[in-house]
Design brief:
4-stranded mixed sheet; Helix Hairpins; Ubiquitin-like (UB roll); elongated; two-stranded antiparallel ribbon
């Protein structure tokens, strides 16, 4: 955890910047400020506290129930900013969005599946910014599920159980072959293909990428 004595509160007139991140997804949830008292309360309770210009000392989620449980607090190299990795119990934004950083361009570009599909797609809506390429891919698959008439390879997989399962087996075999040959570049390509097909199959079964993250978090 963060050492309060190592922080420089003087640069911000008694405040440091706090960047709050979902520890599972890596998604940036919000940016706020904290003073020494707020961070002391955070360390004491294990739940995020901030210093607001309007609210004063602010216990996140005290009224909404959307508390943020601290996983780690890490100061930056200058000691005037803190990265807070948290477990969330609800949206971070007052608008009800997961993150305060919403898309303003109507979506983020995604891909169906490397060489197997290669079709760019747009994920509509004001979803919070996906934290990584896998999350963006999963969001694209969700968008395809919501559009039964959407063209493309992903929709074909979603509509055809036998094709989904067949491709899983094929891609796993190709990854095994690439690893057996010691071909790192081809193995990375095959692993990407296998991950894509696994995500489609997982969504068709009623799961998703966040479910995998939670399993990995428990195992860790």
């Amino acid at each position: 955890m963060c050492d309060l004595e190592a922080l420089d509160f003087t640069k911000g007139n008694g405040l440091v910047t706090v960047v709050t991140q979902d520890h599972l997804t890596g998604e940036v949830l919000m940016v706020a400020h904290a003073d020494r008292e707020a961070l002391a309360c955070t360390l004491e309770t294990g739940e995020m506290h901030y210093r607001s210009r309007t609210r004063g000392l602010w216990h996140k989620g005290a009224t909404s129930g959307h508390i943020q449980r601290v996983v780690s607090l890490t100061a930056d190299c200058d000691g005037d900013a803190v990265l807070a990795r948290v477990r969330v119990a609800g949206p971070a934004c007052h608008t009800g969005s997961t993150s305060c950083f919403e898309r303003v361009d109507g979506g983020a570009a995604g891909r169906d599946a490397g060489r197997d599909a290669g079709r760019d797609a747009r994920v509509g809506g004001a979803d919070a910014v996906a934290a990584d390429a896998v999350a963006r891919l999963d969001a694209t698959i969700v968008a395809r599920m919501a559009t039964p008439t959407a063209p493309g390879y992903t929709r074909r997989l979603l509509d055809d159980r036998n094709l989904r399962l067949k491709k899983l087996g094929e891609e796993a075999g190709e990854l095994i072959a690439a690893c057996a040959d010691g071909d790192a570049a081809r193995a990375a390509e095959e692993a990407a293909d296998l991950l894509y097909h696994a995500l489609v199959a997982l969504r068709a079964a009623g799961g998703g990428w966040d479910d995998v993250r939670r399993v990995l978090d428990r195992r860790a």
